[in-house]
Amino acid sequence: MKILLTNDDGPFGPGLGELAGALGSLGKVTVLCPAEEHSGVGHAITFLVPVRTGRLRLADGTDVMTLTGTPADCVKFGLAHVFDGPPDLVVAGPNPGVNAGVDVFYSGTVAAAMEGGFNGVCSAAVSADRANGERPADVARQAVRVIRMLLDRDLARPWVFNINVPRLGAGEPEVVFTRQSMSFPRGTYTTGLGPRNREHYWLDSAPHAEAPPADSDVACAERGAVSVTPLRLDLTDLDMLADLSAEDETVCRESQR
Ligand code: MN
Predict the structure, then answer these.
(1) 243 C-alpha vs ligand 1 centroid, how far in Å?
(2) 253 has pLDDT over 60
(3) How many Cβ atoms sit within 10 Å of the Cβ of residue 12?
């Protein structure tokens, strides 16, 4: 099995080498990640300027190819230029900090997995509670545990899963299939003064506006289970489309043209 591993935190992002090592039990791992951190860039791509590649070796011996682009660029470029035929699996992560709820839209980690999905390759985003900072090998083991479970299911079509590893304790956490919560962290800004007394505003983390549903990714990660959410790539509101088509003959005819 050929595996492309990327992340949104760059080659020195925490746990990259550990995840590469753990994925090695599933197949041949090629690491291709952004040359610099690109957290929170969502599905941005680079096309107004060229991108360049680099190579380095992490302290643990993991070989890494870097790209002066975004996480989505890494997958796009990897599939076009690095692999001889598409890989069997794209993995993005491990991101320090859970990517659940609406954060899925801001996350470069999740976008990289979705880019794999656009290309018909089974893909997984892996994020973990920041409290696991000292346990990168355990996070990697949980990620591979879930990915192996998904591969064993022999699912009928290419998939994209968003995996969130909770704060790990002593025992083996439960693995739960969840839905994406729409609970939304309100934007709060810390105000500060820079050089020459120029005021600036810095986006800060904030509690979610409302309690997430119990079956959601956010709630699951909070209660200490590994959250596994299947993601769809088509954002169309099918219920709204059906309502519009039923109510308005024009819309119906337009859409059938
Ligand atoms: Mn990140």
Answers:
(1) 38
(2) no
(3) 14
